[in-house]
Specification:
elongated, alpha/beta, 5-stranded parallel beta sheet, 19 helices, 4 domains, Rossmann fold, 461 residues
Length: 461
């Protein structure tokens, strides 16, 4: 049985329709069961569930709509496609509102039906993958709002687990939107300081003079406008954890004072002659390359090495694409509950769009994209999404392909090029190539076989 086919239950009170569909679908590779009406279909499903139910709308005893409701309640993972005549299209539309995946109009076009059934089967596989990934995540990891089971994220989880119960300084690096603040929270929650304060400072959002006051505090009269004593963020975080977010933005003069805090555990308020000891665990985060900043003279080398005690690099979403279905469903459920929307699932077409998008804004961009889509969605299925344009991308007229090339052929050719280039760059090391492509090694192996790529030929050509 092909991966594009599966088990299908055809339900129609017309014997000729049932026979024709059994022949045509059987030739296409489907394993076909037949039922004369809804009641017989339910009996078939009780004895052996199927991947897809293809049901007529108008039938005696139990209508297609009634059967649809039973299938949705008892076998929610089964996809349902409705068949209808021209005169009963409104009934098919009603079926879509009730949870049907699609519908076809009689007389049925064989090619159109096979496309619809293939799409329904892919959607079933995507949903099963989301359920499996969520179960794996729940069983193996308990990282609160952190979602991901790819190899890249497993490495991050292992590092967090290893360092959390110590007081070691942690440096989190990675592009904007990858979840560095969530990781800092996870480190705090798994530390002996979990019951003490967690204080975040956005070092890039404050001007130089105000940043020092915010970090270290000031005494009354320390400067114009200092009408009372102010405790800085280090003192506010006493006994707990302070996150110095965007630490690469700190001015050089402030870096000197920060280095003293990190080395001696002492702060000096502005306007004070004495120092005070603080007991604080420091986590720093940046989207900058601090080594480059050191070379450019904008970041102190001694501070860089002091921060680099325990480094965790957070991967961009492009390097963990297999996490996208799980992340998207996670955000959908959160925002559906927050905004009281009925949406429960993401269509296969939308999921394919999400998987193809480059996500320059990383997880945060995906989160905001799903939030907007949920707000605009009025049904149970999220069937459209607005993706942000990628700056610098070349605009191509829709539908323009090289002469004689179909869209599936063009997509396979592009996929082949990316896989081949990754294998060349890694000199055939498949684990390294998979990380570069943002997929799992098993997924890469599947693509190599599907595309007929010889790794040996690629490496030594």
């Amino acid at each position: 049985m092909s991966t594009d086919t599966g088990r299908i239950l055809v339900v129609d009170d017309d014997r000729a329709v049932r026979s024709a569909l059994r022949v045509n679908l059987g030739k296409a590779g489907w394993e076909v069961q037949l039922a004369r009406d809804g009641a017989e279909a339910v009996d078939c499903l009780r004895s052996r569930p199927v991947d897809v139910v293809l049901s007529d709308v108008m039938m005696p005893n139990m209508t297609g709509l009634e059967l649809l409701r039973v299938v949705r309640e008892r076998w929610p993972e089964t996809r349902v496609v409705m068949m209808t005549g021209h005169g009963s299209v409104p009934d098919a539309v009603e079926a879509m509102k009730a949870g049907a995946d699609d519908y076809v109009i009689k007389p049925i076009s064989r090619d159109e039906l096979l496309v619809i059934l293939s799409r329904a089967l892919r959607e079933k596989a995507l949903r099963a993958e989301v359920v499996q990934l969520r179960a794996e995540l729940d069983a193996r990891y308990g990282f609160e709002q952190l979602v991901g089971v790819t190899e890249a994220m497993q490495e991050v989880y292992e590092l967090v687990t290893a360092v959390a119960d110590s007081d070691a300084l942690v440096l989190l690096t990675g592009p904007t939107g990858t979840g560095k603040e969530l990781l800092a929270h996870a480190i705090h929650r798994r530390s002996p300081r979990r019951d003490a304060p967690f204080v975040r400072v956005n070092c890039g959002a404050l001007p130089e003079g105000l940043l020092e006051s915010e970090l270290f505090g000031h005494e009354k009269g320390a400067f114009t406008g200092a009408v009372r004593q102010h405790l800085g963020r280090f003192e506010q975080a006493e006994g707990g954890t302070i996150l110095l977010d965007e630490i690469g933005e700190i001015p050089l003069q402030t870096q000197v004072k920060l280095l003293r805090v990190l080395e001696n555990g002492e702060i000096q308020r502005l306007g004070s002659r004495s120092t005070r000891r603080v007991d604080v665990r420091v986590v720093a985060a940046t989207n900058r390359d601090l080594r480059q900043e050191v070379r450019a003279g904008t970041f102190r080398e001694d501070l860089y090495y002091r921060l680099h005690v325990f480094h965790i690099e957070v991967p961009p979403l492009a390097r963990r694409r297999d996490d996208i279905p799980l992340l998207a469903q996670h955000f959908l459920e959160r925002f559906a509950e927050k905004y009281h929307r009925p949406v429960q699932r993401i269509s296969g077409r939308v999921m394919e769009q999400l998987l193809r998008h480059p996500w320059p804004g990383n997880v945060r961009e995906l989160e905001h994209t799903i939030e907007r889509a949920v707000l605009l969605c009025r049904g149970e299925e999220l069937d459209r999404v607005q993706l942000s344009p990628v700056h610098g991308a070349t605009e191509t007229a829709p539908g323009v392909l090289p002469p004689g090339t179909t869209l599936p052929e063009a997509l396979l050719d592009a996929e082949r090029r990316y896989v081949v280039e990754a294998l060349k760059a890694s000199k055939g090391v498949q684990a390294q190539a998979a990380r570069a492509l943002g997929i799992s090694r098993s997924n890469l192996n599947y693509r190599i076989k599907k595309l007929g790529i010889s790794v040996k030929d690629v490496v030594y050509e």
